[in-house]
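User: For my dataset I need records formatted as: sequence, then structure tokens, nothing else. Please produce one.
Assistant:
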Amino acid sequence: MITSSITKKLKGIIGNDNVFDSPESRLAYSYDSSPINTQIPDLVVRPTTPEQISQIVQLANDEIFSIVPRGSGTGLSGGTLPSENSIILLTNHWNKIIEIDKENLCVWVEPGVITANLQADVEKYGFIYPPDPGSASISTLGGNVAENAGGLRGLKYGVTKNYVLGLEVVLPTGEILHTGGKSVKDVAGYNLKDILIGSEGTLGIFTKILLKIIPKPATSKTFLAFFSSMEDAARTVSAIITAKVTPSMIELLDNTTIRCVEDYTHIGLPVETAAILLIEIDGKKALVDDDAILVHEICRKHNATAIKVAQDEIESIKLKTARRSAFASLARATPTTLTEDVAVPRSEIAKLVSRISEIGKKNNIRIGTFGHAGVGNLHPNYMTDKRDKAAFARAEKSIIEVEEAAIELGGTITGEHGVGLYKKRLLEKMVGSPSMIMMRKLKQMMDPNNIMNPGKIFDLRPKCEGPLPTEREQIKKFEEVAWI
């Protein structure tokens, strides 16, 4: 428990106005966008300088309490949920774009900058910042780096880690580390930057981020391809990749998602269609035109019933906005929607689609599936009602079975949402014991008192507390979690 003495010391570091201890203010930070319900943090703090964060971290080590870094709280795996004896440390107010370096094609930003705001700013100068998560309008760049966020443009342009050039980070022992920089090539020593990316707030707190930007493509073409079966749509994705065409995005929506999106947006989607592929091709005009013709031919060869081409930029944005609304559309259709995140090699996407369908039918659970099919990353959404215990248990069972199916197909339990609290039950089965041992050793070395976002990704236990839970014990614990 955070004592009055600790609260007083925190106020001495950052001022009374930046420490929130009322029940109302703390309640607002007791949940994120995941379906997990944990507890209310003891305090919420809002530091304004890296030096203040360093002092807070040193105090946490002295007094032994935990720090949970938090941006917008849009995470879907429970990564920003408070733990016992913890404070929430906010970074969303650090929202300055510090520098746009047009010569070196990079930008310095604070961690609280909203992703879409950076994208809009650099486009004014003829550049793009490609990582494009569905939550771009509200998620922060610090959170994107912590989770290694993906997005719609991942097929051609990659994910967040491909654009992080440097970091300023406060380590779990209070030191302020600077790693990376504007040099295009740099192999001096271990790549500490890549260890920190995707560490989900367990290895440090980002205070400044250097990101790569690239020239904006000359033109683009966006279109929808409609299919009478999910399998045809999935096979089309593989065929496009095999044809050596790299669209900037290939997004898949199943019939359940199509119906919910149309009910929400009213943009004229055909609700009887089994599946839709949203495809965008960008680059130089001649190449875009040639690739678009080839992709259209591939779609028709794989039984596309129709192809709708966006006639202008406004219509293109409209189509992509409909895709971005997929999660919200599904969430409003049932009292409870559990969002999953699995990924497989692109060659296995058709098999994954079939397995998701089979699992839903077997367990009598309605599943709405959409996602970044071009990179093999799908988001099955389990539509249920937590008040119906039997139905909810079937949804939980389906989630585990889909994750196990992804592992069997050579994939992963998370493509972009992170492990957090939500997915750690199957992590060891996926990565193996040697990897778990190395991750735990790294965490223990960098964070000897386990004060930085403890319990996320995996558990650490003192030897006197006995062995870590087995895979089956973790799954059982997951099934007993109190969901929102």
